[in-house]
Amino acid sequence: AQTVTQSQPEMSVQEAETVTLSCTYDTSESDYYLFWYKQPPSRQMILVIRQEAYKQQNATENRFSVNFQKAAKSFSLKISDSQLGDAAMYFCAYRSEKGSQGNLIFGKGTKLSVKP
Amino acid sequence: GAVVSQHPSWVICKSGTSVKIECRSLDFQATTMFWYRQFPKQSLMLMATSNEGSKATYEQGVEKDKFLINHASLTLSTLTVTSAHPEDSSFYICSASTSGGVFNEQFFGPGTRLTVL
After folding, report:
1. How many CA atoms are closer than 13 Å to the CA of B53, on its beta-carbon side?
2. Contact A101/B91, CB-based, under 8 Å?
3. Is pLDDT at A10 greater than 70 in this prediction?
4. Which of the listed residues A16, A30, B37, B39 has the most CB atoms within 10 Å of its CB?
């Protein structure tokens, strides 16, 4: 079975600085998707960025980018120019490409604080 | 983007009563809907997956008779917590996805906070 591990329960960053959140996963599959979700205090899950495993190019969405290392099964999220609104729980998630209905497997999350 | 709503957003009930939570996809047809449970400061735990017109598939350890899931249409799924007890108090989140998209992305509802007294 696939697992997702986020080893940083909490992280803190100064406003305008850069922070990297770590995520590793375990799978025997070659085709899958990886996601980072943000959950602010409102509890609404918001998709931040996604990556297809077959793509070597790292995904980027404005200030958010990932470092996808397939061989190492690592999928870290980099937030540049951190803003106060970035403060939230961040969940890394895995989804199999085959043989499933799209179930997401979540890590335990990293709580990000942004200091003004 | 696709919008998923949940109703109610917050419910308080007495122990032993049943509570129904609705999940609706407002601007797309959801072939698959997912129900998650989230305890304070914890991650989302998948409870069950449902396809329109079919019985839900429950995750191991989730009581089917306690958490009744109905996916009667392509825009509506309901979760009924039967004979609720204080330990059922939690945050319940639904998500919906549609086939045909590149990612079959899940769109999440805003969640329902259930408090059982």
Report:
1. 2
2. no
3. yes
4. B37
CB atoms within 10 A of CB B11: 17
Beta strands in B26-85 (DSSP E): 32-38, 44-51, 57-58, 67-73, 76-81
In tens, the pLDDT along A18-43 reads 999 999 999 999 889 999 999 999 99
Find chain B residues with C-beta within 8 A of A46's C-beta.
108
Nearest chain A CA: its distance from B38 CA (Å): 10
Q: Which of A33, A101, A106 sits opposite B49 (nearest CB)?
A: A101
> Among residues 62-91 of chain B, which lie with CB inside 8 Å of chain A?
91
Residue type, B64: K
Which residues in chain B have Cβ-Cβ distances shorter than 8 Å to A106? 43-44
Rounded-to-integer distance, Cα B51 and Cα B57, Å: 9
Interface check for A8 against chain B (CB to CB < 8 A): the answer is: no
The pLDDT tens digits of the residues spanning B99-108 come to 655 567 889 9
